[in-house]
Amino acid sequence: MSEISVELPWGAWYRDELHRLQLPGHWEVDVLAPAGGQACTPQDIQAAITAPIDSPPLAELAAGKTSACIVIDDMSRPTRTAMILPPLLNQLRQASIADSAVSIVMATGSHGNVPAEDIAKKVGPEIAATYRVECHDCRGDLAPTGIAYGDRELRVNRTFYEAELKLGISSILPHSFAGFSGGAKLVLPGLTDVQATARSHKFVQLGLRGGADPDRNKFRSEAEQLARTLGMEFIVCVVSNQQRDPSHVFAGDIVAAHRAACHAAPGVFSTELRRDYDCLILNAYPKDNDLIQAENVFIALKTAKSPTVGDDGVIVVTTAASEGVGQHGLFEPGGLSYRPPQPKRFLKNRELWLYAPTVTTQNARALYWEGYPVFQRPEELTAALNQRFPQPTRCGVFPCAPMQQVSDARGAVMGVAV
């Protein structure tokens, strides 16, 4: 029987290759790629940093200060930080802040430790060898801030807290809690203790906060207020295309630069949808480093006006899961917000299948309900799809679902549904 070959981007930060899946030959397959955007040049990045939005120039902010901390996002974000750091470091050097007085902190939140070799991938080997680079530990030696957060005192990363100049580099992606990721989220929950992370997520999970509009999202406004109180003065926000190259870069005030990036993001992430499908393949790239992060594929579905797959259809989540199940102080087994997996109510009667070659079925059951089939071998997935859909079938493929926002037939981009 003939087959249709589909190539999926695969293994962000680890392989960044194309992974081939064979689909039944009698299917109609649409690869629903996002609009994308042209990659920025080094000159574009330099121009954004030297012409900040609603902020004094970085050199002016750095004047008279003797230490600096640059906060970056972790491996679960596509930001090619190594392209952004050099012009920032040059400006700090010109402001007479010594290289030895500059620290780079990876804001992992509760995602767990990142090995040194992976940090080097993010910042570049030369910077990793020259500067002090550390990974935030949400259960480590954290600084008390004197700021009340709920019924506790907020504690944050000590290196960040003690630096005289605080700035950040973050990725802008659709986010189910914060509307868009990045910005002040680098601080809360990126640099806080695990209890603060749990509190910040609690109200969204209860349906009391969140929403697609970052200007009305209380989860985000709380993070921004705290980041300002803690002294974060400057940020670089990056909108990446499907190749993970920076397509738009905005620098300056931690709110103004973030909103400018949020405004530009739909032009890169917009994905035109012209019809409904019997089967939908949601690929987790560029958040395919682990199975926990792969849950972000559903953001693509939640941006649609109406279901994109039929009531009795099948949704296939595909992920490299290069780090296996992954770590998350809230949502991993034993985490503060972990719940045993259940059927996903928003899918209603639709079947959910998981294709994760690096994860055993037993390990996948920590996150995926036992009624959802798990496949490790591509030929087994192909055979199961052939058996499930022996008739002509319409299939849509989202190659990088966590960064895709569905636009309807009229072209109006919908916000993330929470």
UniProtKB/TrEMBL annotation:
Residues 14-203 form the LarA-like N-terminal domain. It holds the Pfam family Lar_N. Transmembrane segments: none annotated. GO terms for molecular function: lactate racemase activity. This is LarA-like N-terminal domain-containing protein. It comes from Symmachiella dynata.
